[in-house]
Amino acid sequence: MPVWSRVALLLLVLTSSARGDDPEVVPVFVPRQDGFASIRIPAVVVTNGGALLAFAEGRQRNADQARNRIILKRSTDGGRSWGQVTVIAEAGDRSLNNPCAVVERTTGTVLVMYQSYPAGVAERSDRIVPGYEGELVVRNWLITSLDEGQTWTSPRDITRQTKRPERVTTLAGGPGIGIQLRQGPHAGRLLMPFNEGPFGLWNIYAVYSDDRGATWSLGEVAPGALVDGANGRRTSQVNEAQLVELRDGSVRFNARRWSGQAVRKTCVSADGGQTWSKVTDVPELADPSCMASIIRQDDLADGGRTRWLFSGPQSTKRENGTVLLSTDDGETWPVKRVLCPGSFAYSCLVPLPDGTIGCLYEAEGTSQIVFVRFTLGWLTEETESKKPTRN
User: Fold this and answer.
1) Most buried of the four, 24, 97, 175, 376, by CB within 10 Å?
2) Is residue 346 annotated as part of the catalytic site, yes or no?
3) Catalytic residue, candidates 64, 90, 284, 329
4) Is 361 a catalytic residue?
5) Active-site residue 126, yes or no?
6) Which residues of the chain carry a pLDDT beneath 50?
7) pTM flag (> 0.85)
C-alpha cells in the first residue's frame, strides 16, 4: 500500500469513535511532525497529581545512537490528548538513550535516568571503554521534576554510583520505568533496572536508593545470564529489563531474551535488589527479542487485590501486541488479550487513577508512538468480539 494510502487509512481510524469499553488509541509522538527524523523508546508514568508524562528518544536519524535527545509530552486528561513536545535533556553530539522514569510517592518527585553515548560511536563499537573518565565512556545521568514534569533540574552525573569501574562498557537503564517498594524491610526503596555490557555479554542488575534518589547504590548482577552460544562463544541470555514487586516485598526481573529459548527471562531478589537468583525462562511469555513492560496494580476497591500486567509482542516477530494478567506474582498468566494484532514493538504500561490501564507503545513498524487506554473488564472478557479502535 502506498505511503499516502496508509496515512489516509490511519487518519480515518484515528477519527472514528470508540465503541463502549473498547480500547481508545491516540497518537503521541509522530516523527517529523514532532521535529525528529525518528522517535523511539517509550516510557510513561503518572504523577501524584494525575498528569501523564510520556518520554522517548528524539533521534536525528533512524539509528540507536543519532545525537538523540530525551523528549517529553504531558497529558492532563488521562491520555486523551497530549501537549507539545519538549526537549528535557540534550548533550550536543553525544547520544542520549534509554529514558527510565519513576515517581517517588511521598514527595511526588519524578526521576528520570538516561545514558549518554560518545559522539559518533554506536553501542556495538569496540571504541567504548570502561571506567569513568574520558569522552569514550558511557555515562549515566539523572534529572528530576518537582512540578509534575513542567520543569526539570540540570542533569546530574551519577555514573560512579551506578556503573562498575572495570570491564563494563555499554550501560542501559530499563528502558521503561523503575519502581518504589511498598512491602517488606526495604519499603520506600527506589529501584531502577539496568543491563551492562560489553555488547552481547550483558548482565542485568538494579541500582537502588533509600534516600528518595539523593544517592544510589549498585546491586550485584544476576547469575546465569551468560551462557555458551551455538558457536561455542559466550553470549548473554538477557538484555533490556523491567522490575516488579511481589506481595512479600521481593522483586522480580522480567528481561528481554537475547539468546536461548524465545521467551522472557526472569530472576528474583529477596533483599531489595542487592542480589538475585539464577536467570530462568518464563515459558508463558513469548519474546521475539523485544523490550516489554510489566507492572503491578493494587486494587484497593477490591480488597487490596494485587494483579500483574504484562504487554509485549506474542509472536516470532514484533507484532501481535498482547496484554496478559497474573494474580499469583507472575507464576502463571491465565488471562490474555490481543491489544494490537499488527506491528507492536517497545511498550510501557501505566495504571491510571480511574482504574483503567494505559499502554504507550511503538506502532506501525516504529513509525510512531501511540497511547491506548483499556479497562480490566475489556481484558478479562471471555468474548473476542470487540477489537481495539482508534479515536
Assistant:
1) 175
2) yes
3) 64
4) no
5) no
6) 1-20, 382-386
7) yes
